[in-house]
Amino acid sequence: MTNPDQKEYSAEAILALSAAIERNENAFDWLTQNEQKELAALAEVILFSKNEAMEWLKNNHFNNVVSFVGALNEDEDAINYLMMNDGKAWAATAEVVNGSDNAQEWLERFFPHFEKLADAIIAIPPRRRGGFPSHI
Predict the structure, then answer these.
(1) Which residues of 84-101 are buried (b: 16+ CB within 10 A; e: fewer)?
(2) Mind listing the pLDDT tens digit of every residue in the chain (136 residues)?
(3) Helix H segments across 24-111?
(4) 87 Cα distance to chain centroid
(5) Residue range of the domain that includes 65
(6) Does residue 134 sit within a domain?
(7) What's the rounded Cα separation, in Å, for the pair 19 and 49?
(8) How far is CA 99 from the centre of its chain?
(9) pTM, full prediction
(10) Does 99 reside within a domain?
């Protein structure tokens, strides 16, 4: 089995994650049916603070995805982990959610699908800054 941290996500997969966070059931189903179960689990963590989904991500070594949750909680260690492990787009997305204009400009230019993900997370009512399960 390859290292899950080395998995690259297509723009289609990230856009499906964004749609799932916007509560589009078809997008959630697409994720689970197209070998993107970790992104479906991430949607559950973000939307519902599902500890079971977070544990599944940890147990299956999706460290970048787990660290993304930590980065949403403004955990500097998680952000640094992402920056050092091919997770710059994930780190920038978390930074946008947490208010960084510089990160937003970078995503707009290089990773617009991740900018859409940030927008979907920001739009969650009510926005639960710091309300995501711990990644540790």
Answers:
(1) ebebbbbbbbbbbbbeee
(2) 445 656 889 999 999 999 999 999 999 999 999 999 999 999 999 999 889 999 999 999 999 999 999 999 999 999 999 999 999 999 999 999 999 999 999 999 999 999 999 999 999 876 554 455 554 3
(3) 25-33, 37-48, 51-59, 63-72, 76-84, 88-97, 101-110
(4) 10
(5) 10-122
(6) no
(7) 17
(8) 16
(9) 0.89
(10) yes
